[in-house]
Specification:
The complex is a heterodimer of chains A (266) and B (276). Chain A is α+β, with helices and mostly antiparallel strands and 266 residues long. Chain A has five helices and 14 strands. Chain B has one domain. In chain B, 47% of the residues are buried. Classes of the chains: A alpha+beta (266), B mainly alpha (276). At the A-B interface, helix 1 of A face strand 2 and helix 13 of B.
Chain lengths: 266, 276
């Protein structure tokens, strides 16, 4: 066989494999960069990261000093009815169409474009009122933006921080290990300014809770252990230096308040 | 052509498994496997401690077995690299350096046939060595925890086979550039362990992520199919779940790119080689 012809065949076969593989790898990488991980939209310096699984709808929350946000995976919105949200606001001014990356919220009255920031459109919902766990808030404004099938809702600082986190790559993806997505509620709080506790990791499934607390010193740790050992359903599973892991079964509102009180040295 | 390939393959395969390189690699594998087995039994409690840092409620035998397989795979990802350096680096350069090219180039066998037969033989011995480690890994995991995540193990095994093909092709390509074995050895080691890692550090610093297009990062998927932990970055990502499908497909695509491009380049360079 002609040597030149042989080389051409080798090059053609290589190109036929390499080019589609490179294209496929780049498109997969871009999709991965966009992330299926909702924590991609939470800032790296968040002091609290949380996860809520409510009947199959997944929410992530993040918070720090001046900002907070809720990250909503719209592909999990099978059980969320937007007409219910609209009725909560007292208006029927929200409607949704589609899901996943083509998720849209159509504004009628209260939802309006607030600003465009680093190529993202930020929307505002004005005069929203809601109540939860006995706390009522009226005439609030919340801001939101959408990217790759995720909707981030929060205060304006939360939205700015979230957008900056995605663009600058300073996101909270590396904190995913602290969140247990098989629990109904999972919360991780880091670098707390609390005098007694440095960090808190809690997972709740049904009425059972497991968690880990890292104390600032041994006095508070032993105080916490002595207070909590009297509480029904509470047991300490391990103590390692300033870190303790615990389990709490059949948790109710009283024992939850007792736990919060003990963490705050009350 | 098929019979010529079969003859060349059996010749090179015998050549490889009778070589000192093969017995050295075999001895290394037996030693590493023995050490890993000892550590697996001796320090199995450490896996519980490590996992309980994340979520004590999620710890079960299946998760612990995957965590153990992750640690075994941590060592496994480097085994094909060393095997490739031993078997692949001198593959073409040795024909020139040892002057065997005078004999094989004059044979009525195409150079592409010689190259592919030698590549297949090197691949077979590398797989043989890696399989010893993988079998012991499965046995130890099953013995300690009474369970083995077979799906994750088979995926890891299949990706290991692709990775071996890929890293061997890369060493064949480097070997085809040089006429001296020592240059091929050093270049492969420098590129894989120095250049790739340097690029990795830079991308980690600048973008807080590892570059998925480097072969060494693609190889990490061999362990991440068990537990998705990436420690090779300045902001390590830790998830107790296995790596997702898109992550696996991306790594496999990268390996295939290295495989096809390296083999094609090696074939063309080998065609141009002159016996000196």
């Amino acid at each position: 066989m002609n040597v030149l012809f042989k080389r051409l065949i080798i090059i053609a076969v290589a190109v036929a494999i390499v080019v589609p593989a490179v294209y496929y790898a780049i498109s997969l990488n871009n999709a991965n960069q966009k992330q299926s991980d909702p924590l991609y939209y939470a800032p790296y310096d968040s002091s609290m990261i949380g996860y809520v699984n409510y009947n199959g709808t997944h929410l992530y929350v993040f918070a720090q000093n001046r900002s907070f946000g809720i990250i909503l995976d719209t592909s999990s919105l099978t059980n969320l009815n937007f007409s219910k949200i609209a009725s909560l606001t007292g208006n029927t001014n929200l409607s949704s169409s589609g899901k996943g990356s083509s998720f849209n919220i159509t504004a009628k009255t209260n939802l309006s474009l607030y600003a465009s920031y680093r190529n993202y459109n930020i929307y505002v919902i004005k005069n929203i009122s809601f109540s939860f766990a006995g706390v009522s808030l009226g005439n609030q404004s919340v801001y939101l933006y959408e990217d790759n099938g995720f909707v981030v809702i929060g205060n304006i600082n939360g939205i700015f921080d979230s957008i900056n986190a995605t663009i600058n790559g300073r996101n909270a993806v590396s904190y995913s290990g602290y969140i247990n997505t098989s629990a109904n509620v999972s919360i991780a709080m880091f670098n707390l300014t609390n005098r007694f506790v440095r960090s808190i990791y809690v997972n709740m499934t049904g009425y059972n809770m497991t968690g880990r607390l890292v104390f600032t010193n041994y006095t508070y740790e032993s105080y916490f252990i002595s207070v909590m050992s009297n509480i029904k359903g509470f047991s300490i599973t391990s103590v390692n230096d300033l870190s303790i892991t615990f389990r709490m079964n059949d948790i109710d509102i009283t024992s939850a308040y007792q736990l919060i009180g003990a963490v705050n040295d009350q | 052509m098929t019979s010529k390939f079969a003859v060349a393959f059996s010749y090179y395969f015998k050549n490889y498994y009778r070589s000192r390189s093969f017995y050295l690699m075999l001895a290394l594998i037996v030693l590493i496997t023995a050490i890993m087995s000892y550590f697996s039994f001796r320090y199995q409690g450490k896996i519980d401690n490590f996992l309980s840092r994340f979520d004590s409620a999620a710890i079960n035998a299946s998760l612990k077995s995957r965590a153990l397989d992750y640690i075994w795979s941590f060592v496994l990802v480097d085994i094909p690299v060393y095997a490739a350096v031993f078997f692949g680096s001198p593959s073409i350069s040795s024909e020139i350096e040892d002057r065997t090219a005078f004999h094989i180039f004059s044979l009525p066998v195409g150079r592409v046939t010689i190259l592919t037969a030698k590549y297949a033989a090197a691949y077979a011995v590398t797989v043989l060595i890696s399989i010893i480690y993988l079998i012991i890994e499965a046995v130890i995991t099953r013995t300690i925890y009474g369970t083995l995540d077979l799906k994750a193990f088979l995926i890891s095994f299949l990706i290991t086979l692709i990775f071996i093909a890929s890293v061997l092709a890369f060493t064949f390509f480097i070997s085809s550039i040089f006429n001296r074995n020592i240059y091929a050895y050093i270049t492969v080691l420098i590129i894989y362990f120095l250049v790739f890692n340097a690029v990795d550090v830079i991308t980690s610093l600048l973008y807080s992520t590892t570059s998925p297009f480097l072969l060494n990062n693609a190889a990490n998927i061999i362990m991440e199919v068990f537990v998705n932990i990436n420690l090779f970055t300045f902001s390590p990502t830790i998830s107790l779940s296995p790596a997702g499908t898109s992550q696996i497909l991306l790594a496999v695509a990268v390996m295939i790119v290295y495989l096809a491009a390296s083999l094609a380049a090696a074939a063309i360079l080998f065609e141009n080689k002159e016996a000196k």
